[in-house]
Every structure is written in C-alpha cells, then in structure tokens.
Design a protein that fits this description.
Layout: E1 7-8, E2 12-13, E3 19-25, E4 32-37, E5 44-45, E6 59-67, E7 73-81, E8 90-95, H1 119-124, E9 128-132, H2 141-156, E10 162-172, H3 174-185, E11 191-195, H4 201-204, E12 208-209, E13 214-215, H5 217-222, H6 235-240, E14 254-257, H7 268-279, E15 284-287, H8 299-318, H9 324-328
Parallel strand pairs: 8-9, 8-10, 10-11, 11-14, 14-15
Antiparallel strand pairs: 1-3, 2-3, 3-4, 4-5, 6-7, 7-9, 12-13
Length: 343
C-alpha cells in the first residue's frame, strides 16, 4: 500500500510479470507514469512528460476550513502563486460549482479556457484562487451559495496576504447562476464573471434543454436547482432565487458569457440579465460566441475568452489598463474583425 499526498490512477498489472503501472500526480506534478511490483515496493518513475513546466511559475494548493454563517464546518481549496510571499497582499478570485475539496491533488494544464478560470494560469500571474465547497438545502440554492461563499471569503480576508479590496467571483453554468445571485446580495467583490448563467428561474422553468429536448421543469423541481416544487406551488421561491428580480441591487461590474447554441442553458438567460443591467445603468458586458456550446469547443474562441477574462480581472483587481472592448464594446458589424484588446 502507498500513502502519499498525490492523486493516483487505477493501477494496471502486466500480463506476464508481477509489475504494476499507474499515473501519479498533484497540483504541481504532471500525471507521469510510475511502476512498481504488485506489493507497491520498488516504485520508479517511468516518464517525464512535461519537462517545460520547470520554466514557468506554477503554484501550490492547501485545504482550508471555516464555519458558515450558520456555524456548519466547511472545506475548500486555496491555490497560491509559486513565489508566494506572506508579507505581500494578493488579489483573489473565488471560483465554485458545488464541491471541490476532493480535488486537492488534481493537476491542471494551462489551457485556453472553455468557460472557467485556469488555476495555474492565474497563480502564475499573481492571483490567489479560492474554491469553497457549497452545501445546499431545498428551496434556497441562492442563499445557500451565499452562505458558503461569503463565509469562506470573510474567513480568508482575515489572512493578511489576502487583498480584501481586490476580490473577484467566477463561475460557469450552475456556478454562473451562483455568481449572478451573489452580486445581487453583496458589494464585497470588485468584479465578477458569470458563464452561462440562469438569471430568471420563472422563464427558464418552462423551456427545454436544446441539446436533449428534455423539459427544464425537472431541474427546478427535483434536480440541481433544488427549488423542490413547481412554479405555481413555489412561486415565491422561484422569484427569491432569480437574480433578474434583484438586478437593481447589483453594484459589481459583471462580465457574462452566453452562447447561441448552448444546449444546457438557453442563451436568452444571459440576454435577460445583460439587458436588465444595461437598462439600470450598471456596468455589464455580454460575450456571445456564435455557434458555440455551453462550454467553448473552438480553440480561437477559447483563446479569446481567456484574453478577455484576464483583461477584465486584471483591470478591476490589479489596476491594469481598460481595453477598448470594455470601454466601447464591439459593434456587431466588426465582430470577428476587430478584437478591441488594445487600449
């Protein structure tokens, strides 16, 4: 038996020898191949598949614990830059979905983003990344997310190296919904990015998931959205959990991505939120990648999202320049012709 702080794949035995082969990895170490005898003695590394990693800053990860606003113990992960200096202050991005603390040893390769922040990329650019677990009850998914995320943020800002004035939020899909809800409840965060968010549970309820053709009602009554009943029996809960009805409270600059062939979350959900914020005079941007899915598949679009999300957070959390696309937008006739990356 091996007990080490790594992630292990399932060992595979050789057909004609008492030898095993598996992958071993951590946040810092690429999942290389390892070999040992069947009793796990004499283990040896067989590959060095990512030697170029040593040329780049990476990061470290640790598990953190805190109590929610209601007193329940929670866990999460804190990713720090490789050259971390506890005497300095670092901007922090909070990413979430549901539970993530079991991914302590997961290795992430720096790739153009499909929809979320890439942990090693942001670590190497001087950001802390905090990933809190979220626990839920029936009927109040928005408040439950707020309780878990906010309590974790308040715990971490007690640490002197966390720059409490420069914290951001980022989530995709269910995480995008939670981002949209969070910014209706607090102005603590300086910037937020919501990918494929449901903003209006009352209008999303009666739609279909375009990819499968399944009616969306099941998701709200008995699935991930956790309302616990239909729209007419639980009308107040559908409204309570819909960010659109509280958009007038939002003060946090919000970047939204909603793609027009998203088969999971109808892209009009992002449009509803964006037009509401524009009508209210709030700082908001909408990115629509034509012909793209729930998570981006085309590499040029993934590169574009990575650049824009980085510029967005760098501007608000690190005092970086405001790119042209944020100041002026990109007219529809120039889409795909002009990037607006420059100042």
């Amino acid at each position: 038996m091996i007990r080490q702080d790594y992630d292990f794949s399932t060992p595979v035995k050789a057909k004609k020898a008492d030898q095993l082969i598996w992958q071993r990895s951590s946040y810092l170490q690429y999942p290389d191949l390892w070999q040992s005898s069947t009793d796990f003695t004499n283990e040896a590394r067989l590959s060095n598949a990512n030697p170029q990693q040593k040329e780049y800053w990476w990061g470290t990860v640790e598990q953190v614990k805190w109590n929610t606003l209601e007193g329940a113990e929670m866990k999460g992960l804190l990713y720090k830059p490789e050259n971390f200096d506890p005497s300095k202050k670092y901007p922090m991005i909070i990413y979430y979905y549901e539970r993530y603390s079991d991914k302590l040893h997961t290795h992430y390769v720096p790739n153009p983003s499909r929809s979320t922040v890439n942990f090693p990329y942001y670590n190497s650019n001087g950001y802390l990344v905090f990933v809190p677990d979220i626990t839920y009850s029936t009927g109040h998914p928005g408040k439950d997310a707020y309780n878990s995320i906010m309590s974790g943020a308040l715990e971490l800002i007690k640490r002197p190296y966390v720059d409490a004035k420069n914290m951001g939020l980022q989530g995709q899909s269910w995480g995008g919904y939670q981002t949209a809800f969070m910014v209706t409840q607090t102005g603590l965060f300086k910037a937020a990015m919501a990918g494929a968010p449901v903003s209006n549970m009352t209008s999303a309820y009666g739609g279909i998931r375009w990819e499968s053709g399944v009616v969306r009602e099941f998701q709200y009554e008995h699935g991930q959205s956790r309302i616990g009943g239909n729209l007419w029996d639980k009308r107040d809960l559908y409204i309570e959990n819909s960010p659109i009805f509280f958009a007038d409270r939002i003060t946090t600059p919000l970047l939204i991505m909603s793609n027009d062939t998203d088969g999971a979350v109808p892209w009009y959900q992002g449009i509803e939120l964006f037009t509401a914020l524009r009508r209210l005079g709030k700082p908001a941007w909408l990115m629509v990648y034509n012909g793209e899915e729930h998570n981006l598949t085309k590499r040029p679009n993934r590169q574009d999202l990575s650049i824009r999300m980085s510029q967005f957070f760098d501007h608000y959390l690190k005092g970086g320049p405001e790119p042209k696309w944020m100041k002026e937008g990109i007219p529809a006739v120039l889409k795909g012709k002009e990037s607006g990356y420059g100042n």
